[in-house]
Design brief:
Helices cover about 65% and strands about 0% of the residues. The chain is mainly α. It has a single domain, classed as AhpD-like (Up-down Bundle), CATH 1.20.1290.
Length: about 180
């Protein structure tokens, strides 16, 4: 652990409590982005969060959001396969261009082109869907660095518990969670 004040089994909620006002604002932002009205389902948004986190090798966020996505009905195997398969062959066809967009925005963000967005639109998504996907992608690139910067690691039991909480309760109240 990089912060002596954080417990050995620290989660994001512990780091958010260091600055409670900013922590509450960030939790509210997460709630709106991940559970607010969107053309993307909560499960699809959790899948994107897990995917981005896997690309960034953030075990804590990948594990927690993979578990949340699974709770929303996304295949556990699909999530693991997506990170390893650059072609995204196992992804549902309609999600493939959004996941390709996520990959490029995460790993090669200075090379985004109109063709990247056009592929999403050609798959039947509108601008709101792409905007919402970008919010998830950007937020989890941020959160992966937040987690790594605080030295938060977790383990499979913590990720499973966190994923269940996010599925059942969402992001509001995470600071108050025991």
């Amino acid at each position: 652990m990089l912060f002596p004040s954080l417990p050995d089994d620290a989660g994001v909620r512990h780091a958010l409590r260091i600055n409670p006002a900013a922590g509450r604002a960030l939790a509210a932002h997460h709630q709106e982005v991940m559970r607010g009205e969107s053309p993307l389902s909560p499960g699809e948004r959790e899948l994107i969060a897990a995917y981005v986190s896997g690309l960034n090798q953030c075990a804590y966020c990948h594990g927690s959001h993979k578990e949340a996505a699974v709770a929303f009905g996304v295949s556990r195997d699909l999530i693991e396969d997506l990170v390893a398969d650059k072609t995204l062959a196992g992804a549902p066809p309609k999600l493939r261009p959004i996941l390709a967009y996520a990959r490029k925005l995460t790993l090669d963000h200075t090379r985004m082109t109109p063709a990247d967005a056009e592929a999403v639109f050609q798959a039947g998504w509108d601008e709101r869907a792409l905007h919402d996907a970008i919010l998830v992608i950007a937020m989890f690139n941020f959160m992966n660095r937040f987690v790594h910067g605080h030295g938060i690691l977790g383990n499979e039991a913590i990720w499973a518990e966190g994923g269940r909480y996010l599925h059942d309760m969402g992001y509001n109240g995470v600071l108050e969670r025991a």
